[in-house]
Every structure is written in C-alpha cells, then in structure tokens.
Amino acid sequence: MTTNGAPPLLEVDSLVTRYPVPRGVVGSLARQPQRWVHAVAGVSFRLRRGEMLALVGESGCGKTTTAQSVLRLVDSDAGTIRFDGTDITALGSGDLRGLRRRMQIIYQDPYESLDPRFRVRRTLVEPLEVHGIGSKEERRREAEEALRLTGLAPPELFLDRYPHELSGGQRQRVAIAASLVLHPDLLIADEPVSMLDVSVRAGILGILDDLRRRGLGILMITHDLSTAARYADRIAVMYLGRIVEEGAARDVVANPQHPYTQALLSVVPKRDPRQRQRPEILRGETPNPVDVPRGCRFHPRCPIAIPECRDVDPELLQPSDARAGHLAACIRT
Ligand SMILES: Nc1ncnc2c1ncn2[C@@H]1O[C@H](COP(=O)(O)OP(=O)(O)OP(=O)(O)O)[C@@H](O)[C@H]1O
Ligand SMILES: [Mg+2]
To answer: Which of 25, 65, 297, 318 stands the most exposed, by the fewest C-beta atoms within 10 Å?
Structure first.
C-alpha cells in the first residue's frame, strides 16, 4: 500500500549508535582512551506503510540497538531518523510523547512486557489511560477489538486472566494487542517468536502479516532468514553494525549477492532452534564490535576476500547481476 507522494513511514539515514566500553578504575586513572562498542555503524533504510521489512543477522550485529535508536530509546551519535516525514532525531521527550503512541515495539519475551500483577484487561486499557484516550466504554471496546485482531476471541475469555494463566503464544498475542490499542503506524517486532514453541510461531507471524495488510509498517527483527523470506516484503541483512545486503525478500533469497548472506542461506534451516547449525564459514572468530576490522568488516571471515578487501570499506550498491532495488556492500559483486 504505497501512498503516492507521501513520505515513507520511516526513513533512517546513516545512523550511528555506540556504547562506551567501561574503562574501570585502572583505565580511568591511566587515562586510557575511551573505547566504544560500534553497535550501529552507519545504517540506512526506508519502511513504507503496509510493508514488512525484516532486519536479519546473527547475535550482536546491532539489530536491537537499531530498533531502540529508531524509537529514540537510546541516543544515537549521528544520522537522522524521520518518522512520517518528521525529523525525530533530536526531538525532546515532550515532543516525542505524542509520536511514541504511533511507534510500538514488541519483544522476544512476552513475560518481560506484561506485568504479572495485571489482568489482561488492565494491560490493554492502561496504555489508553496513560495517553488520555477515550471514555471508559471506548477503552473497553478498544481492548476487545485488539484481542480479536490478535486472535484471542471471544475477548471475555481472556480479559480477566493474569499472564501466568496464558500460554506463551497467548501472552505474545496480548503483548501485540497492548500495542494495537494505541493504533500505531509502526510496529517493531524484535524476535517476536524466537522464545515461542514452534507450533505457535506461524500464528503470531500471521498476525503481523495481517497487520501489514491493514497498512501498518512493520520492522521485523529476526535471526532467521527463512522466516524473513516467508513473511517480509524486503530483507536487510546486517553484519557488525551495517546493512550489507538489502532488497526484495525474493531477490535476496533467490539471488544473494553478499558472501555473508550466501553463508546464512547455505545452512538448511532446522525447525528446532537447538538443532540449528551456524554456516561453516561463520564458525570462525565472533566479530567484535569494539575492534571492527578495517576495510570490509566481513573480510576476516569471507571465503572470497581479495587483498583489496582489507582496505576498501564497500558501499551498498546495486550489483550488475541484481534487480533494481537489490543492493550489496561487496566489491566482489
Ligand atoms: N546497553 C548496552 N551497553 C553496552 N553494549 C551494548 C548494550 N546493548 C548492546 N550492546 C552491544 O552492542 C552490540 C549490538 O547489540 P544488539 O543487542 O543491538 O545486537 P542484536 O543484533 O540485537 O543481538 P541479538 O540477536 O543477540 O539480540 C553487541 O556487541 C552488544 O553487546
Ligand atoms: Mg537483539
């Protein structure tokens, strides 16, 4: 659902977010220079309404930090974030308040986002109260509607339950419902199914798919390229704080350009996460975002690296063999 001429829902440009490495007493006394975790090191992407973009990459590559930066939950060092045409990079908390309602996040562990002392009813109504939205009656209707949208029907069956009286999948549905009562435009789902039993994953992903069809922009974060391929419109593959490949989901999966994406795809997906193997070439040293390799950040693990890769930090460009909008950051493509 592209709206002609309208700005993208989310536009992120050259985003940089670092965390300081604690120096400890000795380091401070010795005046050692401050070192940084380069969690997000120049990330750009766009997300439209009605579109699902999957951010894929192995643990520690900066997916969650990207999400938290976009939502202004952590401060970034550089770059810009535009939400629905408004530059929110430097907005203060007062100005952000109204926008926060329109940008919601759901987490991996629904236990974390649900207060164990609250019944479902209170979990769903409270965000509306906090934002001063609707009458009591309207809030009740919103809560019921949100439960229906997440497949928890009839609502009466769930409204009076506590989180511990729900299954893991139901808890995640309630967490999604609690973000939907606010009618957000953007939903960020950070590993929304990785803690859940395999049997309920498709149900949760189906809800996100449905919300996308209703016009929400969805940024889905996942380790799992096969999930991304199945549900997302576009895929952005992240490595050590950068997007190294991006394109239509089918193009990225059918015609991967970056050797890192090729490695991720080389592993036959196992349904049981405990049986998932890491790709052969990725077994090597775990990338360290404090000492990012110079040149191409992937070169120490790359099977096709040439000497030049030690010096050239490749830009995201369209390879000759790729379709329009399919980009990769590799001088060998
Ligand atoms: N609050 C923090 N303080 C310091 N370093 C952090 C903090 N949060 C994350 N990091 C570091 O930043 C890097 C990126 O972390 P991030 O959580 O964004 O990765 P991720 O891709 O979401 O990983 P995962 O798949 O394991 O969730 C990692 O090296 C991590 O250790
Ligand atoms: Mg994460």
So the answer is: 25
